[in-house]
């Protein structure tokens, strides 16, 4: 079912001490505020056991997963291992994995398929680079990433899919997409998904915006009826910048 999600992507940041105390501050905030939105924290693999101890009103997840069950895949982590530690979410297709770590649409697809098949919720990320936007290829890129990334998924898998539109040029740059750009991209993504599944099924999927979301610009997104939440990197590394994002979505009157 569609819900509002405010997701933190902590990326490769913080040792256990710092991450533990930030997780505790997120948890006390969520326990007290009882937001309608789901607050999700995606930590590094080694932070997960600690998040499992701390998180009650916050849901936690991982930033990556491998698509095999087990075996000779040095350094990788399986869906089952994530479930074992209590993680409920995982990111797939994040632009840093695509563009820094070389993940192809095929790899993103295998990871997404495996994770949803194992009952993990997946925040599936798509987005164009600056050069692709300037060349007028945004819609084409989104169509390809969605068609390839979600290929082979069954309708029953859709309830565990959340889609995040994250233009690469807006991630970690301080330069956010405009509300209109985000709405146009999400509308395009929905169109492509409606052809793969059905309009009714896609209507139940949550669509997030990500890319330099911060307290100063969050209302651009929280006031949009098309945007069901945000995926946040930099501003999720302190409660002072993360809590206002949750609060903004509480105040939306849509
Ligand atoms: P940012 O990162 O908020 O720091 O731009 C967003 C993301 O990578 O998910």
Radius of gyration, taken over Cα atoms and rounded to an integer in Å:
17 Å
What is the helix/strand order? EHEHEHEHHEHHEHHEHEH
Largest sheet: 8 strands, parallel, barrel
Instruction: Identify the overall geometry.
Output: globular
- As laid out across the biggest beta sheet, the strand order is 1-2-3-4-5-6-7-8
Helix content: 40-55%
**H/I helix tally:** 11
Ligands present: 2-phosphoglycolic acid
Low-confidence spans: pLDDT under 50, at least 5 residues?
A: none
How many runs of DSSP E, i.e. beta strands?
8
Structural class: alpha/beta
User: Which strand-content bin applies to the residues?
Assistant: 15-25%
Averaged pLDDT: 97
Distance between the termini: 17 Å
Structure overview:
- This protein is α/β, with parallel strands linked by helices.
- The protein is built from eleven helices and eight strands.
- It has helices at 16-33, 48-54, 79-85, 95-100, 105-117, 130-134, 138-149, 179-196, 199-202, 218-222, 239-251; strands at residues 5-9, 38-43, 59-62, 89-92, 121-126, 161-165, 206-210, 229-232.
- The chain starts with a strand and ends with a helix.
- The model has no long low-confidence stretch (mean pLDDT 97).
- It binds 2-phosphoglycolic acid.
Task: Briefly summarize what is shown.
By secondary structure, the protein is α/β, with parallel strands linked by helices. It has helices at residues 16-33, 48-54, 79-85, 95-100, 105-117, 130-134, 138-149, 179-196, 199-202, 218-222, 239-251, and strands spanning 5-9, 38-43, 59-62, 89-92, 121-126, 161-165, 206-210, 229-232. The chain is globular, with a radius of gyration of 17 Å.
């Amino acid at each position: 079912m569609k819900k509002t999600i405010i997701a933190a992507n902590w990326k490769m940041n913080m040792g256990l001490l710092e991450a533990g105390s930030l997780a505790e501050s997120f948890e006390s905030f969520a326990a007290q505020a009882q937001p309608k939105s789901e607050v999700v924290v995606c930590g590094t693999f080694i932070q997960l056991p600690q998040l499992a101890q701390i998180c009650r009103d916050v849901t936690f997840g991982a930033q990556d997963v491998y698509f095999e069950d087990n075996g000779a895949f040095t350094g990788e982590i399986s869906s089952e291992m994530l479930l074992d530690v209590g993680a409920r979410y995982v990111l797939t297709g994040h632009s840093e994995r695509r563009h820094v770590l070389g993940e192809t649409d095929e790899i993103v697809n295998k990871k997404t398929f495996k994770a949803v098949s194992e009952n993990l919720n997946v925040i599936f990320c798509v987005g164009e680079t600056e050069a692709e936007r300037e060349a007028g290829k945004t819609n084409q890129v989104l169509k390809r990433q969605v068609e390839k990334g979600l290929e082979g998924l069954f309708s029953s898998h859709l309830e565990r899919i959340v889609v995040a539109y994250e233009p690469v040029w807006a991630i970690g740059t301080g330069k956010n997409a405009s509300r209109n750009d985000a709405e146009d991209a999400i509308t395009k993504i929905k169109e492509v998904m409606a052809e793969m599944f059905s309009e009714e099924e896609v209507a139940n999927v949550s669509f997030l915006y990500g890319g330099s979301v911060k307290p100063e610009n969050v209302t651009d997104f929280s006031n949009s009826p098309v945007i069901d939440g945000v995926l946040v990197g930099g501003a999720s590394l302190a409660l002072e910048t993360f809590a206002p994002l949750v609060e903004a979505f509480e105040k939306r009157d849509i």
